[in-house]
Amino acid sequence: MTHLEVPSSPTAPVQTGRKAVQVRNASVVYQTADTPVQALSNIDLDIAEGEFVSLIGPSGCGKTTLMRVIADLEPISAGQVLVNGVSPHDARMARSYGYVFQAPALFPWRTVLANVTLPLQIQGKGRAEAKAIAQEHLERVGLKGFEGKYPWQLSGGMQQRVSIARALSFEPRILMMDEPFGALDEITRDRLNEQLQQLWQRERRTVVFVTHSIAEAVYLSTKIVVMSPRPGRIVKVIDSPLPDERFLDLRDTPAFMALAHEVREALADGHHG
Amino acid sequence: MAKATPSRAQVWWHQGLPVAVVLLAVLLLWYLAAWVLNAPGAIERVLDADVGYTWQELFTATMSMERPLMPAPHQVVLDFYESLTEWPLDSPRNLLYHVAVTGESTLLGFAMGTALGLVLSVLIVHSRTLDRALLPWIVASQTVPVLAIAPIVLVILGSLGFSGVAPKAVIAMYLCFFPVTVAMVQGLRSPQKIETEMMHTYAASRWQALWLLRLPAALPFLFPALRVGVAAGLVGAMVAELPTGAQAGLGAKLLTGSYYGQTVQIWSALVMSAFLGLALTAMVAAVERVVLRHRGGV
Fold it and tell me: Which of A270, A179, A176, A268 is nearest to A227 (CA)?
């Protein structure tokens, strides 16, 4: 077992900021017909406020499961998870996070604007206030002027930007993104990555990002969590040495390539380990 | 505009031609059937076999009998036209009077059936117990012939003091609620996992998830069921008119027509009920187009 590059222990302060997410010795076991499947095994992870953390790994490594556990979409079988210092359930009820799914999941019967006001409406915000907030968030993702359109009138990339605006509309402290650009073409994906990076630069909101693209993880993250399957576990946590200010050109620099190489090595170790 | 005109004419040509061809074929077959079916009666009652008759005389006789086995289309059209133009609207001889009577109980029953179907489907979707407890009975209810249920309902409601439109509407409701319930159960369950999970992350209540996600998602399932339901409700309303002594309504008109052998009247009432059914479903379709007008593409 060469992969035991133990993630930061709970006592050692990795970041000076407050903890957004703390995962202690968490496991998820699915009961199937014949044998129990260990989806997550003894996960320890700390995410400080303001970090951009990517979970990367091959299919079945539990990266999505880990995020769903943090988002209270999946129960844990053992261990402890704290989000903003409270249980995932309490954090969800306090609307502490926005979740962007793999598909935009926009409601076809609502306009772009009405899709963004949906969470605000659920939280009981007034109609005029919700509208103003939604318009501002649509502008931030570059969709000013599309408020009155219906989802089917937008391209896939625009739809996903609407879903990001929707997730951010109620100003959650954490943004969780589950392979949000996985279904898009590479050109659109690059552009959205750039915009997401700029968004994070401006707001420094905590982001948890699931991906299976090394380039995406390295370009976006301040911390990369490399995971491996059977059982789903963390093999390495890499703190990015790259500067916070990033541009697409950064991907051609030696520092970027070295980091990408490190991630690739860790993925290979996990695979063979 | 200059460009739009020929294309509209083309549309009419493409849509209208098949309809016209079928209509023509039906009319021809109808005349043929009227001739074949009425010939024995005409020979027996109208023509004098001793004197002899030509083919032409036979044909004319079969087309203009007073109580034909099968009235010719023009006889039905004439009776239809006369009933609408020669009698005031409040006269039982005017078919529109019966349309109003039947239409009233159909629409009331349709509204009640739709409401019942919506309530049942929401209960079924939200409770596993109710799903198991109610659904078999709902399905079983539709295997009981409405013709058997109608007199029982009429007698019971009559003894409770309900008469007139209410008992007929109840029977129309009995046929309406079923397609609505089944379609809405499917529609309310149609949102995908990702959409329900999204509502979950917003900490939406069950009621909010129903109102903001499940109900709008179910609308495309609801409208086809409403079209079926309103037509079924019309059948229910007409059947309900039969055991009441056949005072008024299209069903009653059919029954009195058959009592007195007024075949032409039966047929014009039949045509009128078909028109009523078409009008009711067209109304539902028009509402559907307005409500779902923005859901293009996908």
Answer: A270
